[in-house]
Amino acid sequence: MKVYKIASILLGFSHPENAMIDERLMEYETNEPPQYFMEVKYMPSIVIKEEVNEEHELIKTVECENETIVYTLDKKHQPISRVTLSKTMDHISIELSQILKNRIFMMEYIITGMYFFEIAIYAGYLPLHASAIIHQQEAILFSAPSGVGKSTQANLWTKYNKNVTYLNDDKPLLWCQEEIRVFGTPWCGKTLFHNNASAPLKAIIFIKQSKNNEVVSLTNEEKLIHLYKNTHRSQIASNQENTIKNINDLIEKG
Known about the structure:
By secondary structure, this protein is α+β, with helices and mostly antiparallel strands.
């Protein structure tokens, strides 16, 4: 097991060799003792043994006294993952079915990111779906649904200004208490554009495709809608409360 420091989160992480993850995690490695633990195992198959919550067609949950179990199913309704989370988020066990075959590496990257962000929310951070850059020692975030062009905007800044660096191309973390600060994480979408660094927040720009090139200020209600649409959607009630609090704090300070 290796330990990684991502923002202030000390994550002990054990998993099968996966270049997609290992290459991104490398620069976050630390000798400090872990606060949280995540382990990944590849299983020949996964069988649902418990009585599950049937509210969602492809996600099944089991609430136990000290832990929550989450199953994910594919379109054929075969279980492809089983995740066990302690109530305090200090231990997360992820089992992935080998029926995924070559897709198992991408699935591991996606699902470990999802549950790292659950830890991050529990620890007080707000993950935002955005491309984050550092310009003049401040963070500028371009946020939008996938495919709209947030990475394109960030790429243009890095292309035409040599002093601009990437912080994260997909999921930076925001610390919304006192000074608002943005942190890089190793989960950065399909690219390798990330940096183990942080910077105070300058601006969040929500982009959309349009024939007109213009920038407009948002009302607090519009900020709330855009922020909530582009945050990590937790399935855990206490984390949902943390997310709403962080969004409100961000709006008040911004």
